């Protein structure tokens, strides 16, 4: 599987979080939102400024900068 950042995904992709390349504060915040290694995410849209995802049943909007710190693997559908 090829690892990429969440900011490089496309709408409709289902991905699994591999690693979060961020400081402790941001990692903790993302974990509270349901983003942690092993969690599955559905990408709803990826436009110029934000990535809209569904994780743990919640819809979350992340800035491209934050999304670029979340490393994911595409899940085969």
Q: Largest sheet, if any?
A: 6 strands, antiparallel
At the fourth level of CATH, the homologous superfamily is Ferrous iron transport protein A (FeoA)
Put simply, the count of helices is 2
Judging from the principal axes of the Cα atoms, what is the shape?
Answer: globular
Number of domains: 1
CATH class reads Mainly Beta
Distance between the termini: 13 Å
Order of helices and strands: EEHEEEHE
Radius of gyration: 11 Å
CATH architecture heading: Roll
What is the percentage of strand-forming residues?
35-45%
Average of per-residue pLDDT values:
94
Instruction: State the CATH topology.
Output: SH3 type barrels
Q: Total strand count, please?
A: 6
Name the strands of the widest sheet in spatial order: 1-6-2-3-4-5
The low-pLDDT segments are none
Helicity range:
10-25%
Class inferred from helices and paired strands = alpha+beta
Structure description:
This protein has two helices and six strands, in the order E-E-H-E-E-E-H-E. By secondary structure, the chain is of the alpha+beta class. The chain has one domain: Roll (SH3 type barrels). Strands 1-6-2-3-4-5 form a six-stranded antiparallel sheet. The two termini are 13 Å apart.
How does the SSE layout of this entry go?
Layout: E1 3-5, E2 14-20, H1 24-32, E3 40-46, E4 50-55, E5 58-63, H2 64-67, E6 70-74
Antiparallel strand pairs: 1-6, 2-3, 2-6, 3-4, 4-5
Keywords:
44% strand, 17% helix, 6-stranded antiparallel β-sheet, alpha+beta, 77 residues, SH3 type barrels
